[in-house]
Amino acid sequence: MAAELLDPVKPVFPDPDQAMAYPDGLLAVGGNLQPDTLRAAYRQGIFPWFDRNSPICWWSPDPREVMLPGQQHWSRSMRRFRRNSSLRIASNRAFEAVMRYCSRADQESAWITEEMIEAYLALHRIGLAHSLEAWDGEVLVGGLYGVQVGGVFCGESMFQKHTNASKLVLLTLADSLFSAGCKMIDCQFATEHLRSLGSRSIARTDYLRLLAQARNNPLNWNEVFADTMQSHSNV
Known about the structure:
Number of strands: 12
CATH class of the largest domain: Alpha Beta
Order of helices and strands: EEHEEEHEHHEEEHEHEHHE
Mean pLDDT: 93
Oligomer: single chain
Radius of gyration: 17 Å
Largest sheet: 7 strands, mixed
Shape: globular
Distance between the termini: 52 Å
CATH architecture of the largest domain: 3-Layer(aba) Sandwich
Strand content: 25-35%
């Protein structure tokens, strides 16, 4: 079974269950990265991932790595780090910078291209893509970005220039979103780093079921993170 070729102007995604088992859930090729296309993809459990030498590729892996409410794991050392750290957490203060730092951290595969940066900046401008950042004074030292689909947050990438900064950001994201009613953080693929923070793999059918249940749930990102620019030294 081959990946479906999408119309470059008006792409229509096939059923995610048609994704190829190898490699890693490839579903379709082509289409575009316009905001409406990306919105439709994420609502169906599909995301783009390709390098600068490839056409646009769309994926829906099985199994899917996720973090569910109550599963985020603050280790003893991370709790101690949170208490003693002077790092501050901010929301959407430097979305483009976060993407560019993530791109530099991933030079081997180089999938966060200028085309991808422009596409997600467009999503950010209409309130669908967000970043959460760690700041040391006025220096950006860690962060992540992703796409909000109602009550689901689809994480894309993260970086750090300070030990434990990315862990602090992801765990703060999980605590804040789950407390506000978020049903799932999509991590896409498993890594040791994510597993250490509480992620787990679930079947694509279960992922799609949870997504369908939560994608229309109202969740106001700006309200959730209204008070994030604060010191963790008193937590």
